[in-house]
Amino acid sequence: MYRPNQSAIDDPETLRHAMAEIGFAALVTPHAEGIEISHLPVVLREEAGQTVIETHMARANAQWKLAGVRSVLIFQGPQAYVSPSFYPSKQEHGKVVPTWSYIVVHAHGAFETFDGAAELGGHLNALTHRHEAGRAEPWSVADAPVPYIAALKRGIIGLRFAAERLEGKWKVNQHRSAEDQRGTYEGLMGAGEQGVDLAQALASFSVRT
Prior knowledge:
- InterPro entries: Split_barrel_FMN-bd (IPR012349), TR_PAI2-type (IPR007396).
- The chain has 209 residues and is α+β, with helices and mostly antiparallel strands.
- Helices cover 33% and strands 36% of the residues.
- The protein has a single domain (5-79, 100-175), classed as Pnp Oxidase, Chain A, CATH 2.30.110.10.
- Strands 1, 2, 3, 4, 5, 6, 7 and 8 form an 8-stranded antiparallel sheet that branches.
């Protein structure tokens, strides 16, 4: 991934937090005939100091048969249009153009498959808990009939992805002047939920410096 120095994020804790918050990724696996891509919900955990990402897909999806092939999981975070009108420098010299702000994380590695009933059950429970925990009446896998869940498990296969390398890119105008950063922050704060997330990410750079 092209990452100018000011936008590169390599801190593992920051990247793991972003991946866990996003919770959804594109699995990209090249092969002799082309490239397979699947869009999948994920859960993360740490295992012996390594980031392990688990997901599942339909057995009918042939990508799982590429287990062991080096792949990439792409986590696309918040993104938003940035207008030149955000910048005070527009009034000074007019040398500004629109851009796009975004956060993205790439996890490089390979995956293995698992399909044991207990392992799949543990994965589905973890994935469900991750997204139901904050609800007033959280749903659990145990709420559904056992034969129904057993039948669904037979139609999926689990993937366990060992991340060998993580790389992130935070493109939030942190390279611009302090005045234009403030203008970007204020503009993004009015650009919806994703804009607010990006504005807060930009603010974190100001704290560091």
